Amino acid sequence: MNTQTYPAGFQGEHEEPALMLHCRRVASAAVELSKRMGWNVDEQRAVREAAMEHHHFALPSHSRMLTRLVDEMWGYSPAASEPSEESVERMKALELCCLFVQRWEFAPYECTTWGDIVSELRTLAADGFFEPSQVEALAVVPSVQLEDVRSVVSKLPVFPAVALKAIRVAQNPMCTAAQIEDIVGSDPVLAGEVLRAANSPAYSPGMRIQSIRQAAMFMGPNDCCKVIAAAALRPMFQSPLVRPLWNHSMEVARLAEALARESGKSSPDEAFLCGLLHDVGRLALWKLPVRLTSQYTTLLQNGCEPMFAETILAGFDHTVAGREVALRWALPQSIAHAIEFHHQPEQTEDAVASLLYLAEHCSGSAEDLPSATRFQIALDRVGITRQKLNSMPAFSAHGKW
Asked: Which CA distances in Å does 183 have to 104, 140, 227, 247, 342?
C-alpha cells in the first residue's frame, strides 16, 4: 500500500516514484532491524536488496528477481516444498518493516508516534502475525533518547538575552526606535550588525546612518529586530556541516514573512522570526556524538527523508528536539509552538505553523513526506488559495504548487 500523495505540481525531488521512496524506507528500516537481530553483513545486504524490490515481486517481469533473491540469497527455492526456518524469519522481518513504514507514511492522515506503531505491532505479534523477538528488536532500533537530546541542548550556546529582548519587542506592534536603542546599546557586536544592515544597498540610505536610533527609525523597529535575531543565531551555524541549514532557515523565514503579509493571519515579523528558528531542532541533532550523526548521514545517503531518518535514529524528529531548544532558550510560547508543529499543521489551529509548513515545502527542502492533505489544510488555515500562492512573487521562482 502506498500512502504517499503529492500536491499537484510538486517538482524536482518529488518526481521520484513514490513506490521507490517507500522501498528505500523499508530497506533502511530492515537493515537497522537486522543489525539488532545480530545478522551478518551478507544477510543485511540481502534483506536490503529484497526490500528494494519487495513491491515488484508480483509483477511477471520481476519473477526472476524474486527467484534469485529467495533462492540465492535466502536459501529457499519456490520449487521446494518447505521453506527453511531462516528464510521464513527473514521474510517476516521484511513484512514487519514494510508495515512499520506504511504506518509511518500514514502520519499525515492519522498522527502517530514510534511508540504507537510499536504497540500496534506487539498486538499483531501476540496474534501470531509477527515474531515477538523481531518486534522487540524494532522497538530498540532508535539509538538516541530524548534525554540525549536534552543533554545536547543544555550545551548549546545560550540564546543571547539581547536578541531575546528584541524578539519580544518585535512582537509588540507599538515598539519604538528608542526601545531598540536601549536593547542593542549594550551589545556592540549586534549594534554593529544593525548599522551595517541600515547602510547596506538593501536600504540605500541617502546619508550614512551612524546611530542605532537613526537605524531603527530608517529601517523600522521590526526590521531591526529581525537583523538582531539573525545576527545572534548565525554564529551557531558556522560549521560547514550545518551552514546549508542556515541558508535554508533564511529562505523559509523570507517565504513565511511573505505569506504572513499576504494572508493577514499572522504578524509578518513573527513569521520571519519563526522561520529563522524553525529548524533549530536539526541543529541540536547534528550536535549529537559522531557515531550517531554518522548513522544519520548513512540513512540520508540511502535515500531517506530527514524526518524518516530522524525517526529511525531517535524515534522522534527534529520538531521535538526544536521544542526542547525553545524551552532551553525561554523563547515566547507562540514561537515554541510554531517550531513544534511546523511539520504537522493539522495538529494546531495556529496559523504560523501552517505558514512554516507551506514555506518549508515551497522551498523544496524535501525534509518530509509531501502530502496533498496537509498542504491543503495549511492553505485553509492561512486563507490562501493555491492560485494565489502561485501568483506571489516570492513563490513564483520555486515553481507551481
From this structure: 46, 48, 13, 27, 30
Say if residues 108 and 7 touch (Cβ distance below 8 Å): no
Q: Are 320 and 338 in contact (CB under 8 A)?
A: no
The domain total for the chain is: 2
* Cα 382 from Cα 353, distance rounded (Å): 10
Domain boundary among 86, 118, 141: 141
User: What does the block give as the cell for 129?
Assistant: 502475525
How far is 312 from 350, CA to CA, in rounded Å? Answer: 28
Domain final position from 109, 141, 173 = 141
The answer to the question of residue 213 being in a domain is no
Look-up of cell digits 502530502: 371
- pLDDT higher than 80, residue 64: no
Q: What is the pLDDT of residues 333-361, one digit of tens each?
A: 999 999 999 999 999 999 999 999 999 98
Which structural domain, as residue segments, surrounds residue 391?
236-396
> 158-202, pLDDT tens digit by residue?
877 777 887 777 667 778 888 888 888 778 888 898 899 999 888
Residue 4 above 90 pLDDT?
Answer: no
DSSP 8-state class, residue 386: H
